[in-house]
Design brief:
Residues 1-22 form the signal peptide. By secondary structure, the chain is α/β, with parallel strands linked by helices. It has 14 helices and 12 strands. The radius of gyration is 21 Å and the shape is globular.
Length: 418
């Protein structure tokens, strides 16, 4: 039987061989499936928590492990489940969030429990019959690992999954190890703080639209602010990222979900997801979602157009399916503008509302595959009212205070990185 040292050495060789092969394929214009949409980061000095195997593998020895993972959970170019299993880690159970363990379920689609065909490990869906591990599912687990890439927006559901996992672990005396990953929008802390009367499946914490934390930092805030049920405390162990700051640009090596499939979409997401609560398409049903905006009724007001269609695994029944939508093409928008302002871009929302002819329909419509109503996405009823009333951007931003500044001060207590 191999020693841990020899297994680690083997994995390092595999990692560099895989990286070399991947680079060769990219040079020929072909990108491996797991990296089709989001190319590897050029910030080679950054090392994720998962990639620091030597920091946590000895701690896993002799423990029965559960893993909360999805396709972003990689060590080098290999799924972390596969890597750790090959190193002799006793993985008892896998827990998959929205989009599923293998990432092939569309947004909002319920996912069933299954057996992973590659490893034979039981896969429990946390986006199906239950949204957090049950007592029975944790009774034979000594340690849970959370290793999922977040993108730094309140309505992105993975921090909500982490909250529920923390709650289950706290209730059942199970420690949670978080393999931390960079927040690609880590520089951005902006938007209205969630009004807790609007708490929903796309927002459960009093944080702004863009929270500016890694999942490791966010977990410390959940504990520190007493947000778990009955103010329970989850025992957490964070494997920190090396050479990361919140201002460090970071391009994800794997798409975090089917409709965030380019670096541009990930950086525009905190702003453009607000349009999910409007009659404006954000490009779901195209191969470039969250980089375009449009509606059939804007023909003649914008020259650019796109036509949403059903795409399996991304958007089977998108808004305005098979209709030409006219609006904005943001695929070449200079993200440096967002980084410089450190703000969400409200001008696009204000412009689209003014351009849309039937304003009474802009916010108030029913579409079964939408994330929810605008107020739940914004986290406040005020923003919708302010857009309708024609308030200026300065007036809107002023209404976010002093709560936003208070959040920024609270956030500082939990930061693990500059």
């Amino acid at each position: 039987m191999k020693t841990i040292s020899s297994l680690l050495a083997s994995l390092v060789i595999i990692f560099f061989f895989s990286s070399a092969c991947s680079q060769g394929l990219q040079n020929k214009g072909t990108v491996p499936r797991a990296e089709k949409a989001v190319v590897a980061s050029e910030t080679n000095s950054i090392t994720t928590g998962a990639d620091q195997i030597e920091e946590y593998l000895p701690y896993l020895k002799g423990k029965r492990v559960g893993m909360v993972v999805n396709p972003t959970s990689i060590i080098g170019n290999t799924p972390s489940v596969d890597s750790l299993k090959s190193l002799g880690v006793d993985i008892v159970r896998i827990f998959g969030p929205e989009h599923g363990f293998r990432g092939d379920a569309s947004a909002g689609v319920k996912v069933d429990d299954s057996i992973d065909p590659k490893t034979g490990i039981e896969v429990v869906s946390l986006y199906g019959k239950n949204n957090k591990p049950t007592k029975e599912q944790l009774q034979d687990i000594d340690l849970m690992i959370f290793d999922i890439q977040d993108v730094g927006a309140r309505f992105y559901t993975y921090t909500i999954t982490m909250h529920r996992v923390m709650e289950a672990c706290a209730d059942n005396g199970v420690e949670l190890m978080i393999l931390d990953r960079p927040n690609p929008n880590g520089y951005l802390v902006d938007g209205p703080i969630l009004d807790m009367s609007l708490k929903s499946g796309i927002g459960i914490h009093p944080v702004p639209v863009a929270h500016g934390m890694t999942v490791g930092e966010y977990a410390h805030m959940i504990n520190g602010e007493g947000w778990l049920a009955n103010k329970a405390q989850c025992k957490i162990r964070v494997v920190k990222i090396k050479n990361y700051t919140h201002d460090t640009p970071y391009v994800l090596p794997v798409a975090p979900s089917p409709n965030l499939n380019t670096p541009q979409s990930i950086l525009l997401y905190p702003t453009l997801c607000l349009f999910e609560g409007t009659i404006i398409s954000q490009g779901r049903g195209t191969h470039f979602p969250f980089t375009v905006l449009g509606n059939p009724d804007l023909k003649g007001k914008y020259a650019f157009s796109f036509t949403p269609v059903g795409i399996k695994g991304m958007s089977e029944t998108p808004l305005h399916q098979n209709q030409a939508c006219y609006g904005m093409d943001l695929r070449e928008y200079d993200i440096a503008n967002l980084r410089k302002s450190r703000q969400l871009n409200l001008k696009w929302l204000m412009e689209m509302y003014q351009a849309y002819p039937a304003k009474e329909k802009f916010f108030d419509f029913k579409q079964s595959n939408q994330m929810g109503n605008f107020n739940k996405l914004a986290g406040t009823t005020l923003l919708k009212e302010q857009i309708i009333a024609g308030k200026t951007e300065d007036e809107i931003r002023q209404s976010w205070e002093p709560a936003l500044n208070q959040y920024k001060q609270t956030r500082k207590k939990y930061l693990l990185y500059p």
